[in-house]
Design goal:
single chain, 3% strand
Length: 117
C-alpha cells in the first residue's frame, strides 16, 4: 500500500447514499476540510445534513472530489473554475445523450414518400 492509498476509502459501488463524514472524506482524499466546504458551497459536491458537523457524503462525492482535486492540481483552477468545468462537462454529456437519442430515432423524413424530391 502506497502513501497515496493509505487510509483511502475502499472501492465500492458508486452510489448517492450518504456514508462519509466531512472528516472521513477530507482525510481519505488528502484534502483540507475547508476546501471540501468550498466545493460544497460551489455545488461541486453534495453534502446532506443541516450543519457542517452533520454533513454526510456519498461515494459519488468521492469521485467528484477526486476530479476536482485533479482540476486544481493539473490546471490550477479555483473552486468557481472547477464548478464551471463540471457544468460544461455536464452540458456536453446532455448534448451527447440528446444527439444519440436523435440518431437512434427514425427520421421523420426517411422513407417519407410524400417528399417532392
Amino acid at each position: 500500500m502506497t502513501d497515496e492509498t493509505a487510509g483511502a476509502i475502499p472501492a465500492e459501488e458508486i452510489g448517492d447514499e450518504p456514508i462519509y463524514s466531512l472528516e472521513e472524506l477530507s482525510s481519505s482524499c488528502h484534502v483540507e476540510a475547508a476546501w471540501v466546504v468550498e466545493l460544497v458551497e460551489q455545488g461541486i459536491i453534495e453534502a446532506r445534513g443541516a450543519t457542517i458537523s452533520e454533513w454526510r457524503f456519498s461515494s459519488l462525492s468521492v469521485v467528484r472530489l477526486a476530479k476536482a482535486k485533479r482540476f486544481d492540481r493539473d490546471l490550477g483552477l479555483n473552486p468557481p473554475g472547477i464548478a464551471l468545468v463540471f457544468d460544461l462537462l455536464g452540458e456536453i454529456d446532455r448534448l451527447k445523450a440528446r444527439l444519440n437519442a436523435q440518431q437512434r430515432a427514425p427520421s421523420s423524413l426517411a422513407g417519407d414518400s410524400s417528399d417532392p424530391a
